[in-house]
Amino acid sequence: MRTFWEKEFTCPFCGHRFKKKMVFFDAVKIKSRDIDLKPIFEDVNPMLYEVVTCPNCYFSAFDRDFETIKIKGEETEKKLKKLLEEARKKIKIKDEETPTEAIKRYALSGIVYSVLNQRKKVAISYLKIAWIFREMGKPEDEKRYLERALREFENHFKYDSYEESDEPMILFYLGVLNQILGNRKEAARWYERLLGKHRDSLYAKVGRERWQDLRRS
């Protein structure tokens, strides 16, 4: 079975065309999951390939929506251009799929999604960074990005419009991230809300287990 393939992308920000290594879906095998549903992969880690970064301007986003993102408004475009130019001065992106390079790409996607006011995807970008730091055995860096992810999930829940189908996932992460960070009362509050409103969702099923673990500990 083949593991990798190359996909051609056109940057929606600068128009540059480039190719990127991707992982075949069938090559991904999950052995288990951590408390926050972080997958433990058997062989290839698709998280290292998930963010697409334009090598010309550093515009970055998840592969599934890289080419479909719309940059609306002159002010948004100017702000994004300025931030990406600053990022290019500070970091160098290599054509490698390593944990260090993946962290850089997720950080860049966090910048892009923040400018575009897509807080859920900022939160997911930070969560993935935390997960990679976990794999690298860097708990302090992991904690820092778990806290950032939690803050973005909180702001997304409070201030943004979102699909009803997204709410179980948002409530689960508000619960589990508070649990990991030691905020027991907050974790319990979000789990109760998840179970009270979305009892039949898959996130509620896992959330119920986490809530029981919290009550026993």
From TrEMBL:
SMART domains recorded: TPR
Signal sequence interval, chain numbering: none
Keyword set includes Coiled coil: yes
Entries under InterPro entries matching the protein: DUF2225, TPR-like_helical_dom_sf, TPR_rpt
Protein name: DUF2225 domain-containing protein
UniProt keyword list: Coiled coil
Organism encoding this protein: Thermotoga neapolitana (strain ATCC 49049 / DSM 4359 / NBRC 107923 / NS-E)
Gene3D superfamilies per UniProt: Tetratricopeptide repeat domain
Residues in coiled coil: 66-97
A Pfam family of this chain: DUF2225
Record bears the keyword Coiled coil: yes
